[in-house]
Amino acid sequence: MLDFPTWRKVWLWLITGLCIAAALPSLLSATSVRWPDALPDPMVNLGLDLAGGSHILLEADAAQVATQRLENMEENVRNTMRRAEPRIRIGDVSTRDGRLSFMLDDPGQVDRARELLLPSINGTGLVREWDLAVEDGNRMILTPTSEGIDQAVGDAMESATEVVRKRIDELGTREPTIIRQGDTRIVVQVPGLQDPDQLKALLGQTAKLEFKLVDQNALPSDVQQGLAPPGSEIFAYADTSAFAGSSLAVRRLGGIRGDNLTGAQQSFDPQTNEPVVNIQFDSDGGRRFAKLTTENVGKPFAIILDDTVLSAPNINEPIRGGTAQISGGFSVETANQLAISLRSGALPVDLAVIEERTVGPDLGADSIKRGMLAMLVGSLLVIALMIASYGRFGVYATVALVINVAMLLGIMAALNTTLTLPGIAGFVLTIGAAVDANVLINERIREERKRGRRVVAAVENGYKEASRAIYDANVTNFIAGVLLFLFGSGPIRGFAVVLIIGLFTSVFTAVTLTRMWVADWLRKAKPKDIVL
């Protein structure tokens, strides 16, 4: 137990030194000393309650998910029946009352149509997504199940949460907190962001990009009155467009969505020098876009973003290569925001800001000051008690305590974790846990000496027997910390992170490092007795 070969000492001091070095940038940031730019600078990020920032609560429109599923199913039905051999002709398609119904021209093809639609009805999971019924011998009715809608809403919210996370990361912010709340809400907390307007603009943009053919048969007078021909729908021009205030009729089905985008960058039009957004499709999207433009040369198609028409240029020639350009009276800032939104993906559902709070940095600074004061006072009292009670062994415990705090800070910086107010409480708790381990060891050594054991044997048995209780106690704390991290959120997880890391550092410093120091002292001094 007290045998420490040279290689082991070097290894222990190397681990300790690396952790302390990782803590230096964070410690120096509170002083006037500047960390060299050429060196790595891992930092502990401060949470919303310490650094201030913005808190936004977003809510999704679940009804929009059901509407989108209905539209997707209609397009799927049309494509499936069109590709069938022989082709199955349908008519009188309706999406009223939240269900899809259509007539088969040939009643004898009902069984064949049912067979073709089974994969779409059953879906890919364990939940049946649609109910299929046949009325009057040739009318097929598809009704979404409540389980299917719930699953679709859950999938949409998971996707929306990931899109929100990507967009915020693109802003260059650090360690945002983005979590789901309930079935249709997302909590977004961005530390250090005092002006949430840019964030709200970015998160409020669905970035649903569509390319749809213009319905050239629609009468302009009907369009302006909001009357769309069968199979078409009406969208208003964007406020930044030259046609702002007017509307356009486009074909509802058969267009291309921006789901196949692989990139989007803000750029400038080489002819007009106006800000534009250049987009790139993947292989499938590029092929479909080339097919659309090849089959409709000379016809106009609309570029629609979030249900507003940016522009409706004519297709002068097939557009191949999987690239396209979006223009629409952008400024450099709005074009860049659109590029960010398109790169991170379209939100599957609209998100509305229903709650907004801005937390100032003054409250966090006061919390840090009081937390540091509590830690300092607590540490000084503990140090005084340890030295008074255990002498030299109390000094070892004190040094281990200081190293423990530095290592904990260094590991948090290396992992790029966020320190919250409960995290400071975790720091204070770690100090107590680290000292508690040394108390157990020293008291055990004292008992061994009272039993008449020699100094070396008493120390060796003291560390050996006390370590069992220390490990048992820390394993139970570790289990509690893991459960807090897995099932908690926000501040609770921040506390759990500090607690878990602190358990490892406290055992390492209080047990391993102090044992190495005591072993060196015993080997060099060879004391006849120890004062405890």
Topology overview:
Elements: H1 6-28, E1 45-46, H2 48-51, E2 53-60, H3 62-83, E3 90-94, E4 100-104, H4 110-122, E5 130-135, E6 139-144, H5 146-170, E7 177-181, E8 185-191, H6 197-203, E9 209-213, H7 220-224, E10 232-237, E11 247-251, E12 256-257, E13 261-268, E14 275-281, H8 283-295, E15 301-305, E16 308-311, E17 323-326, H9 332-344, E18 351-359, H10 361-390, H11 392-414, E19 418-419, H12 421-450, H13 455-487, H14 491-525
Parallel strand pairs: 1-19, 10-16
Antiparallel strand pairs: 2-8, 2-18, 3-4, 4-6, 5-6, 7-8, 9-12, 9-15, 10-11, 13-14, 14-17, 15-16
Helix pairs in contact: 1-11, 3-4, 3-5, 5-9, 10-11, 10-12, 11-12, 11-14, 12-13, 12-14, 13-14
Overall geometric form: elongated
Oligomer: single chain
Radius of gyration: 33 Å
Q: Which whole number gives the mean pLDDT? A: 81
Overall description:
With 532 residues, the protein is an alpha+beta fold. Helices cover 52% and strands 19% of the residues. The protein has 14 helices and 19 strands. Strands 11-10-16-15-9-12 form a 6-stranded mixed beta sheet. Helix 3 packs across helix 4. The radius of gyration is 33 Å and the shape is elongated. The mean pLDDT is 81.
